[in-house]
Amino acid sequence: MVDLTGKKILMVLAPKDFRDEEFLKPKQVFENSGAEVKVASKGVSETNGTLGAKVKVDLDLAEVKVEDYEAIVFVGGPGSSVYFYDQGVLNLAKEVVAQDKVIAAICIAPSILADAGLLEDKKATAFSSEESNLKSKGATYVNEGVVVDGKIVTAQGPQVAKEFGEKIVEVLTI
Known about the structure:
174 residues, alpha/beta, Rossmann fold, 7-stranded mixed β-sheet, two-stranded antiparallel ribbon, 28% helix, globular
């Protein structure tokens, strides 16, 4: 088993309506690998998933310091669209790449990466509703469950949430 003891991963959730499995399954994979997981969101101390999960938020997105984490993961679900045009979130995503950290997104959240200009000339995937946005921002859309291009990990949705978490762990150990 991979040992990520001492590594910190930040999971970014929408203020409401994130997709439960896309948070819970990767989080379990990360914790089973020994990583410390923190949760960030915007303007809330607790966020609710579409299937009823309630998650305590550790810090507001405005307080995030990219250098504190080895990876930042954007969780999908309908609520994550609130971040598509959020300049603070787009700048955060750009900073992750600028610092050569692992960045990941699942479901519709890869559009955050696309909107930040991070998927140009990169292979990526997302929930089918986001395919045209990824392509319009220069991504090479790949219709697979989980796609890795360098330190960018993207995934299609809840059915691959565990595999998404495992791929992030794998990329963190390269």
